[in-house]
Amino acid sequence: MNVPLKRIKDYEDMGLGLFIHWGLYSQLGQGEWTEFIHGINKEKYEKLADTFSAKDFDVENIVKQAKSMGAKYIVLTSKHHEGFFLYDSKGLSDFDSVHSLAKRDLIKEFVDACNKYDIKPFLYMATYDWHNPLYESDFNKYLEYLRKSVEILSKNYGPIGGFWFDGNWNKKDADWKLDELYGTIRKYQPNAMIINNTGLKNRGKIINPEIDAVTYERGTPDSINHGEENQKYVAGEISLTLNQHWGFADSDIDFKSPKEIIENICHARNIGANILVNIGLTGTGSIPTISDQYMKLIGIWMKYNSSAIYKTRPTNIESGYKMNDFVLSDGKNLYLFIFDLKIVGNSNVVLGGEGVNPRSFTGISKEVKNISWLDNKEKLSFTQNNDMLTIDATGFKYGTDLIVRVAKVEF
């Protein structure tokens, strides 16, 4: 496999990101596609800019919470399909945050906060646009409008970690002039990742040589398309929502379990992908209470296990029969991800974590010196027989259940 470019390697090292959807739609609390799906009159909808106050958008606090969650980068919607810019569009349009009630360049605030707290800022940009009539009437002129909107972001906010595009799937056979668009980014932001979401029907598709990562929206693939042999190595990224919407939807209570979220994070790293966990801000720009709690839960798991997520890569080491367990490597140590452990307790509460729980892995021939849980540093007993390693995977201490437990193997 080809060696990844430095920007792609650095991106893969980060592992976990936070996705933030926020726009005029957030004020309605019905999801990010509400204008289109509910057929809201365009003129009426766009008056939401007059009430878009951003009064609760404390971006430093949001970035700090993302950092506590364990995210190394944040993708924020600079413009969603509604066409409203969260930044000063420099005369390109007056449908932006500086012409709204907020009268603020929210992307500048976001990038500045990310830089302050050592988080990489990524900017989502919708290519499919409901606001600008040129999208339907004169597509080539629209593409220049799109390019200029990206040029503003590329030139005026300092280093950007990456650009995350979404919407080419709406005109899948059109000439999107991607060389010009991506060329603008490469001119001003040579180290930025370029990602273009290929949608639900074309997950993992590479649509241009400048693409640095393929997307798997709401997907759980078994493998990642890293590109053809003798071509540029491409990273992969899975993105998931906490409930069923990307944007804030106050009546959507169908949330994934914390177990599903943690297992998705682990699965992504097992197949060599990054993962974006999404939240939708409220209409005034705050993190919804339940999303805040999910971020804290992820943060608890990452507090113990982040060293097994950052800078690690998949291995060819195989786990025992019918086990979900897997192994990652940071080039020096191995990390054993152990699933389905029980809590050590008492027969009166039937927690079931007592006794020996052997887990085996094949493909480890180097002599192991020490194995210990990351969460409490407990040393584990183990045996080695040729290239098979068997550990006694002890259960969680009473009062604890981290869903997936990780052991560090030292040589």
From TrEMBL:
Alphabetical keyword list: Glycosidase, Hydrolase, Signal
Function text: Alpha-L-fucosidase is responsible for hydrolyzing the alpha-1,6-linked fucose joined to the reducing-end N-acetylglucosamine of the carbohydrate moieties of glycoproteins.
Naturally occurring in which organism (per UniProt): Companilactobacillus tucceti DSM 20183
PANTHER family (UniProt xref): ALPHA-L-FUCOSIDASE (PTHR10030), ALPHA-L-FUCOSIDASE-RELATED (PTHR10030:SF37)
Leader sequence residues: none
InterPro entries for this protein: FUC_metazoa-typ (IPR016286), GH (IPR017853), Glyco_hydro_29 (IPR000933), Glyco_hydro_29_N (IPR057739)
Domain of life (superkingdom): Bacteria
Record lineage: Bacteria, Bacillati, Bacillota, Bacilli, Lactobacillales
GO biological process, one term: fucose metabolic process
Coiled-coil region(s): none
A single GO cellular-component term on record: lysosome
GO molecular function, a single term: alpha-L-fucosidase activity
Key word Signal present: yes
Entry protein name: alpha-L-fucosidase
Family: Belongs to the glycosyl hydrolase 29 family.
